[in-house]
TrEMBL record:
HAMAP family, A to Z: RNApol_arch_Rpo11 (MF_00261)
UniProt cross-references to CDD domains, sorted A to Z: RNAP_I_III_AC19
A Pfam family this chain is assigned to: RNA_pol_L_2
Listed name of the protein: DNA-directed RNA polymerases I and III subunit RPAC2
Localization, UniProt: Nucleus
Keyword Nucleus among record annotations: yes
Family: Belongs to the archaeal Rpo11/eukaryotic RPB11/RPC19 RNA polymerase subunit family.
Keywords per UniProt: DNA-directed RNA polymerase, Nucleus, Transcription
Stretches assigned to the DNA-directed RNA polymerase RBP11-like dimerisation domain: 30-98
Taxonomic source organism: Drosophila melanogaster
Lineage, broadest ranks: Eukaryota, Metazoa, Ecdysozoa, Arthropoda, Hexapoda
Amino acid sequence: MARGRGEEHSNQWKQNTLAGDEKNGEGSRTFVFTNEGHTLGNALKTIIARYPEVDFCGYTIPHPTEQKLHFRIQSRRDRAIDILKRGLEDLEGLCDHTIVTFEKEMAEFNAMKVEN
């Protein structure tokens, strides 16, 4: 799997302890992403919320003028940081698959145009 994009994202979030995180153990964390919005938040939430070990997954944009995304993961079984990393890797794989499929279909379409 390509690594560039996932590594880029891993540098854009920080594991801050926000209100309530310190009481809930390693399974519940709110991660703050800078310069990200609903595109990443919704895609990542959709993937992570389907994991059976996740009790809750959601995100908020605290204020429209701030470029921050608060991403919350709660799990009683696994560490939230591990779930986040897995989610980012799965999202990266989905994006890679989409690009490959799109490029293949475009090449086939362009070849058909040339033949006609």
